[in-house]
Amino acid sequence: MPFFKSMPEDAGPANVFRTYPDIFGHWVKMSQAVMNGPSPFSPGERELIATYVVGLAECEYAYAAHAAATCAWGIEEGLVEALLADPETAAIEPKFKPLLAFVKKLTLTPSKMAKADAEAVFAAGWDERALHDAILITARMSFMNRLVEGYGFTPMDPERAKADARLRVAKGYRDKYPEFAEKKRGDGVRAARPVLYHAHYTRYSTTALMLSLSKHERARPQARTHPSTGSQDEVDGVDL
Question: Domains of the chain: which residue ranges?
């Protein structure tokens, strides 16, 4: 149950976004760029990093949402749990281990970060853009952890998390919201903008990703009218 009486029982971050659009219109645009824009990491790998961050922080709401999104992008189910248990024995490419060690330290003990932590990431083969993106993902999820816990949102059930994950894959972090989606020129109709993908992925081909996108688009849940705003939302109250 949220701490705010103005929020419905099943409220989530999306309710906050709609209440303060002047702030969170910029937030969802930034989130789209960080999580789905050009990057050395695939969208699935970025969701994996995000889920690892919220798992370390023990934020149940964010973990449910991003674990589902990680799986929706084709990452093996259970990998994040294995990383949280023991990153050294988890079935992940060796070059990710120093990167995730950096992310873990930045999440849990940020004041103890040292140049050696970054050098270990570079030595594993990552460039400065990759480390920059990992830092942004960590910072973004740390913000969302505090927003969720500060408002007292109740973790969503698994089916709702999966539905939101399908929507996130199909439309991205901004255009899943009719209120914030980019308008078509000339007619004022809000329309979904295609998710931007970087040309290089370490695990996924562009063809496979587009097939996955098509599959999830077909499985997208039906829209419904939001009780307080009158706008149509396919999954109400959810986003991280």
Answer: 13-233
